[in-house]
Design brief:
The complex is a heterodimer. Chain A is an all-alpha fold. Helices cover about 75% and strands about 0% of the residues of chain A. Chain A is globular. A three-stranded antiparallel sheet of chain B has the order 1-3-2. The two termini of chain B are about 20 Å apart. Classes of the chains: A mainly alpha, B mainly alpha.
């Protein structure tokens, strides 16, 4: 079952790293919006701010498990659901940016059906749906622009999705900790790629 | 497949034309701007008016029609625009 499972300490730490990466992207996107009034950058700001807050809230459930934060009845469940909602909206804004950015004559509506067991699983399914759409559009954008950083982001998004799927599989085989470890490594790798444009931007003259 | 330009992209296109075809400060005419920016006359004039008002372009009044020259502020905007455009492109997006 996917859903009401608190994060492990290792996952919580990764979520904090993810939150930092998301915050860095949101910060630059917001600066860009202030300077250019570009709606694309505003949507990126929203997307990564929500993802960042989602990651932080998500990590709290792991810290509760570690005993760093006092556990209040049903708090973990609420936090996980809230984090999943925020992440879903964040991924929606990311996907929405692509929908608005590349208005085409044909309409691409990928149909992905996923089993819905609990509310959180349903929300996470939607997140995956938006992520898959974003991956498709990012790959299309790479094929048009041939920019290496776009390809890196696309690979990162693929790694995040694969990491999430692998985590679901790890619930089915809890005795095989290697599957869980692979899922963690995929997520770390995926989230790290988001820092590439931040780093590139920061290294340029007048960056951060 | 049809791709639409955003307002900020249109502004960047106009400023780029003014920079590249400005003949070292002499300014660029409306005809060149129309051709390069690919806009209707009425829309271009409306945007030019806004750009002059915001200080991104300078209007050089002439006998028959005006010419437009990119200002320091306009050059700075293009510099900033190109940096953020690259940033957005990393996510497969366009400004």
């Amino acid at each position: 079952m996917v859903g009401w499972v608190a994060l492990t300490p290792l996952e919580s730490i990764i979520q904090v790293i993810g939150a930092y990466v998301g915050y860095s992207v949101a910060k630059i996107a917001h600066r860009g919006y202030v300077a250019t009034h570009s709606p694309t950058l505003l949507r990126l700001t929203f997307a990564f701010t929500l993802l960042s807050v989602g990651f932080i809230i998500s990590s709290l459930s792991g810290f509760i498990e570690m005993g760093l934060i006092p556990n209040i009845a049903s708090l973990v469940g609420i936090l996980i659901t809230l984090a999943a909602v925020l992440e879903m909206i964040g991924y929606f804004f990311l996907a929405f940016s692509h929908i608005v950015d590349v208005r085409t004559m044909y309409k691409m509506v990928p149909s992905v059906t996923m089993p819905v067991i609990v509310v959180t699983a349903a929300i996470k399914s939607l997140s995956l749906y938006f992520l898959l759409y974003t991956i498709t559009e990012t790959i299309i954008a790479y094929m048009k622009m041939k920019k290496r950083t776009t390809l890196i982001i696309a690979i990162g998004l693929i790694l995040i999705v694969c990491g999430e799927f692998t985590r679901w599989i790890s619930f089915l085989y809890p005795e095989l900790s290697i599957i869980f470890l692979i899922s963690i490594l995929m997520k770390v790798g995926g989230l790290s790629t988001f820092y590439t444009p931040v780093l590139k931007f920061s290294l340029k003259k007048g960056g951060l | 497949m049809v791709t639409y330009r955003t307002q900020v992209k249109i502004v960047a296109d106009i400023l780029t034309t003014a920079r590249d075809y400005g003949n070292n400060g002499e300014g660029v005419g409306v005809t060149t701007l129309l051709r390069k920016a690919n806009l209707s006359y009425s829309r271009l004039m409306k945007i030019l008016k806004e750009l002059v008002k915001s200080g991104l372009l300078e209007e050089i009044a002439q006998d028959k029609s005006s010419k437009y020259r990119i200002s320091e502020k306009g050059l700075e905007f293009l510099e900033v625009y190109s940096r953020f455009e690259e940033f957005a492109q990393s996510f497969g997006l366009r400004l």
